[in-house]
Amino acid sequence: MNRITHYFLLSALLMFAANVSAQKVKIDSPDGRIRFTLSCDNGQPTYSLTFDQQQLIDRSALGFEFDNGMFGSGIKIGKITRRVLSEEYDLPVGKTSHVISHSQEAVIPLIEKMAPHRTVNLVVRVFDDAAAFRWEFPEQGKDSTLTIRAEQDEIRIAGNPRVLALYTHGFINSHEGLYTRTAYDSLQESTLIDMPTLFEYPDGIFMGITEANILGYPGMYLVKENGRLISRLSPHLDNPQIVLQSSFPCRSPWRVFMIGDRIGTLIESNILTNLCDPCKIDDVSWLKPGKTDWPWWNGNITPDTTFYPGHNFATNKYYIDFCADNGITYHSLCDFAGQPWYRNDAYDFFPGPGADVTKPEYGLNMPAICEYARSRGVDIRLWVHWEALNRKMDEAFALYEKWGVKGLMVDFMDRDDQQMIAFQEEVLQKAAKHHLHIQFHGASKPSGLHRTYPNEFTREGALNYEYLKWQNIATADHDISMPFARLLAGPTDYHLGGFRAVTRDRFKPQVTRPLQLSTRCHMLAMYVVLEGYLGLVCDYPEAYKGEEGFEFILDCPTVWDQIVVPDARVGEYVIIARRHGDDWYVGAITNGKARTLNLSLDFLGDGTYTADIYTDAEDVSQDPNRLAHETREVTGEDTIELPLAADGGAALRIIKK
C-alpha cells in the first residue's frame, strides 16, 4: 500500500531575512547546488535558475491573463512561509518501490498593489535533482469563480544548449511524433513543443522540463517566441478563449525543471511522484502489474484450424492458452477487422450513436471467456474508446467487475484540456472502486499520478511500434530519443514484442504480422530501457515458438525496486539497469550506429551472480533476429563488454546466487 511513512516540517514560518532582500527570494536545494531565485523589481515578478552557479534560466517573467484583467505587473511580495520537507513513501507501481525525498519549500504570496488587489501564491520546491513551482489561487473576496484565459510564464534559456524536442501540430493530437535535436537558437519559433523537453548545456549539465500532478488543470506546452519560451495551456474545446474555469481555491500542476550533471540523474529521478499527492486508493492489494498479449498489433493472427477467427470464444481461447502456457498475466480484447468487441454502429473503432460498451458483439460470450481465462490463471483486459465509455462509465465498470475483467485500455482521447484531464481522473477514481487498472492510449504525457492513483499502469503519448504496421519511422534512431525525453515523464506504452526483424532495406509495412526495424536484442533491451508497469507482448503465439530470447521477455518484471543508469549519451546510446528483489535486469540500446560499450557491474554490490547475457550475433547484419547468448558468473568487480550492432542492443538477466 502506498503510504507516507515519514514526513516532518522543520523551521515553519522561519524568518527569511538572511536570504530575502526587499524584492528577492532565494530557495536552494538541500545540497546547495540548485538555486531558484524570485525577483520582483518594479512590480514585475521574474524567476531565474542556476546549477553550481551556472545560469540555466535567465530572468523570466511570470503572469496570467484572467477574465478580469492581466496579473503580472504592479506586484509586491507578501509574507513568505518556508519549510524543509522530508518524506518517505512506497510506490506499488514505479521505477523504485521506496522513495526518500528531501526539499526546501517557499510559499511566496504575489499581491497586486492596486485594485482589485488579487493574491496568487507561487509555491517553490527545490530538490537535489530538480526545481519546481506551481500556482495556488486562494479565495479572492467576492469572486467565486476563477477564469484563466492564458498563462504567460516565460522560460528564457541561458546560452545555446542543444535541445531534444517534439514539435506538435496543435492542442488536439496524439503526442506521437519524431523528435528533433538541434541547437536552441535553431529551434522553430511559433510552433507548439510538447513536453518533456531536454536541454543539454555545453559543459555537461542537463535540464529536462515537464509537469507533475496534472489534476483539474489543462496540460502545458512551450512555444518559442522572440528567442524565449512561453507557456501555452490547452484551451477548452467548446471555448478556445478559456483555458481554465474553477472554483476557489485552485492550484496548477508543478512546472518541473529536472537538473543534473549526468543525464542518468534525470532518468533515475522520482521527482514527479515526489510532487504528486499521496495515494488516494485505500486498498491497493488487488493491483496486479504484469504483462499482456495484444492481438491487435499482430492482426489477430490465429492458426489454420477448424475455427474461424473473429469475435468468438475459440479465438480468445487460443490467446488465453498462449498466455497461460507462458505465464503472461493478461489477455486483451480489442477488435476484429476494425470492429470493437462491443456493439458499434460505426466503422473502425470510432463510436457511432448506438455504440454500447456494455453489450458484447454477437457471438462473444464475455462471462464464458472470463471464466475460462480464470480457470487457466489468466485475467482479461478490454479496449474501449473513451467517448463510448463516457456514455455509460458507471454501468460499464460495474458490469466489467461482475464479469471478472481486471483492466482497460482507454483510447483516442488526443487532448489534455481541463475537461479531458477531469475525465481521466474520473476514470481512475471509478475504476479503482471496481478493481480495474487503466492504460491510457492516445493520451498526453504522464505526470507522476501513478503515486496518487496506482491503478494507472501506463500511458502512450509516444510514437511507437504500432507505426510499423503503416510506416518505417519507428526505428532505433527514434527509440534512442525515448529515455532522454518522453521517458522523463514516466511509464510508456510502446507495443513491444515484435519478433520478425528485418534490415532497413528489406522492410515493408504490413498491417498483419508487422516487421521490426531493430535487432532482436534491441527489442529485448527495450523491456528494461522503457518504464511501464504493463508490458505488452504484441506478436502472435507462433511468432515466439522456439525463438531465442523469448524467455527473457517472460522473465523480465514490470515494476522495480531500484534504477541505475551506468552509461548514456543523448541521441546515441543508453544502458539502464533495474533491480527487482535481489536480481538485476539490464537493457542497452544504440541508434543506427554500431558501437561497443563497457558495462561496469559495480551497482551489484556484494555477492556472486549468474548473468544471462544476450548480445547481437556476428551475422546480425544479414538476419537481425540472430543473437548470442552466454551464461557466466559475475560480481560487482566485473566489467562486461557489450557489442551493439547498428540498430542493436544487449539485454542481461543477473540473478543473485
Please provide a written account of the structure.
Helices cover 14% and strands 39% of the residues. α4 (313-326) packs parallel to α5 (366-375). It has a 20-stranded antiparallel β-sheet that branches. The chain is built from twelve helices and 43 strands. Mean pLDDT is 95; it is low at 1-22. A hairpin with a 2-residue loop joins β37 and β38 (583-590). With 657 residues, it is mainly β.
Poorly predicted segments = 1-22
Beta-strand proportion: 35-45%
- Counting DSSP E segments of at least 2 residues, the number of strands comes to 43
Radius of gyration: 25 Å
The chain-level mean pLDDT equals 95
User: How helical, in percent, are the residues?
Assistant: 10-25%
The outline comes out as: globular
- What characterizes the major β-sheet? 20 strands, antiparallel
Please give the alpha-carbon distance between the first and last residues: 29 Å
Structural class: mainly beta
The number of helical segments is 12
